[in-house]
Amino acid sequence: MAVSQPDERQVVAQNKKARHDYFVLETYEAGIELFGTEVKSIRKGKINLKDSWCSIDAGEIFVNGMHISHYEQGNIFNRDPMRVKRLLMHKKEINRLLGVTKQQGLTLIPLSVYFLKGRAKLEIGLCKGKKNYDKRETLAKRDAQRDMERAAKNR
Asked: Distance (Å, rounded) from C-alpha 9 to C-alpha 45?
């Protein structure tokens, strides 16, 4: 009898700054084209999405600025930590994203990296930039919600 793998996401890294700086309108899932030592490094959690973004060139989608640290036992097989990585999505999705980003001035931002059925996946957000007053409003709402929960708990 075959043992099935769980369909749960094993989140490795999240881009918390993205949700602070942008309104996330839609999310998409994409595979990442990686080499063996990069996958091992991601499994150890040595990845940073903080200043990364996605670009579309010649019908392909790439992630720029994603830092994957060197794998300690990787020696000559290690790749450049900041290299541009190709993402795996359907052509129809890529063409739709290209049209939306060109017409509406939206941005593609990586939100999280996770493993699903043993494969590395990247969650991409179609985002619109926040202004400073939007950021302050979001913080104020979160603080008010926290205060209400705290007051309800103390009652």
From this structure: 14
> Is residue 19 within 8 Å of residue 128, measured between CB atoms?
no
The tokens for 9 are 């996401």
Query: The tokens 């509406």 sit on which residue?
Result: 104
In a 13 Å sphere around the CA of 116, the CA atoms on its Cβ side amount to: 12
For the chain, how far is it from start to end, CA to CA, in angstroms?
53
pLDDT tens-digit map of 113-130:
999 988 899 999 999 888
**CB under 8 Å to 141, separation ≥6 — which residues?**
none
Instruction: Give the HSE-up count for residue 136: Cα atoms under 13 Å, Cβ half-sphere.
Output: 3
User: What is the three-class DSSP state of 39?
Assistant: helix
Residues 74-92, buried b or exposed e (16+ Cβ, 10 A)? eeeebbeeeeebebebeee
Rounded Cα–Cα distance for residues 74 and 81 (Å): 12
Place of tokens 């094993």: 10
d(Cα 108, Cα 54) in Å, to the nearest integer? 5
CA-based torsion, 36, 39, 43, 48: positive or negative: positive
pTM of the shown model:
0.78
Provide the pairing of β-strand 107-116 with 10-14. Answer: antiparallel
Residue 53, number of CB atoms within 10 A of its CB: 17
